[in-house]
Amino acid sequence: MELLSVCLGVYYGEFTTAAASENLTASQGKALTVLRRGPAAMRTLARVLTCDASNITGIVDRLEKRGLVRREPSTSDRRIKNVALTAAGENVADAIRAKMRTTQAGLDGLSDEERASLHVLLERVFVPPTGP
Amino acid sequence: MELLSVCLGVYYGEFTTAAASENLTASQGKALTVLRRGPAAMRTLARVLTCDASNITGIVDRLEKRGLVRREPSTSDRRIKNVALTAAGENVADAIRAKMRTTQAGLDGLSDEERASLHVLLERVFVPPTGP
DNA sequence: TATTGTTATACTCTATAACTATA
DNA sequence: TATAGTTATAGAGTATAACAATA
């Protein structure tokens, strides 16, 4: 428990620093990281970032003002706005990922077998089994 | 890397919820958790919470107003104020810890051997070797 | 001179509540 | 009626810069 807290603190600290080096807050960096997988509705973004939907407006506002994301109307539901990374946003998201050096180096220091083992153990601790 | 981010989210979310159930923010809860190990100077607290020293004033102010911590002058250096948990603060810190049920249950689900293995792997990834 | 804690300031994140436009 | 996004608001966290007291 203690060690988990320390490790996750290191990880979060490194992510915050990486985001800051691109002049982004941790929340903004996290939003870009999420959008790296593909566009998402404002509501979806709120759920993934585990914050109230009203907060997303401001976060996306600031990212959009810097040209890192854009809002696109949904074709199927006119209430929905999808947020997508711009080319500049993709570059920044990639840059943040690349700057997670300590964590990445630590992972690279493990053998494939050890990495797989860590993966399994972390999943068992943190990813709750989906009941029927 | 991806999984680490998920684990961090789960752990941090659970901690935030546990702190909120005691009407505390995550930062306040973290401060109590740190002080559980013993009193610390304002400056030390800032370093552990990885934030600027100026922020600690407000965080400790709010905790002190609720009677969870107290400021004590250092006997050896009159510039220093040590922050210590009150009895009430200890109770709240214990309550937060007890409410980290999902994480604790996940850890309890591992065998002693698996837990030891996880410990070793996490240390290798996150705790950098101290060079000479 | 350097360090500790504080204050003042500005920005961001956060939840709540109320609003609009759609469904 | 219910949902998606927005706005307004208030409280909290955050870094920066400047300050008084002490080392």
Key terms:
homodimer; 132 residues; mainly alpha; Arc Repressor Mutant, subunit A; 2 domains; three-stranded antiparallel beta sheet; 7 helices; 64% helix; 9% strand; globular; DNA-binding
Unreliable spans of chain A = none
Q: Which topology of the largest domain in chain A does CATH recognise?
A: Arc Repressor Mutant, subunit A
Please identify the oligomeric state.
homodimer
CATH superfamily of the largest domain in chain A: Winged helix-like DNA-binding domain superfamily/Winged helix DNA-binding domain
Helix and strand topology:
2 copies of one chain form a homodimer.
Chain A: H1 2-20, H2 26-35, E1 40-41, H3 42-48, H4 53-65, E2 69-73, E3 81-85, H5 87-98, H6 101-108, H7 112-126
Antiparallel strand pairs in A: 1-3, 2-3
The first copy, chain A, binds a DNA duplex (23 and 23 nucleotides) through residues 25-28, 41-43, 51-59, 62, 74, 77-81.
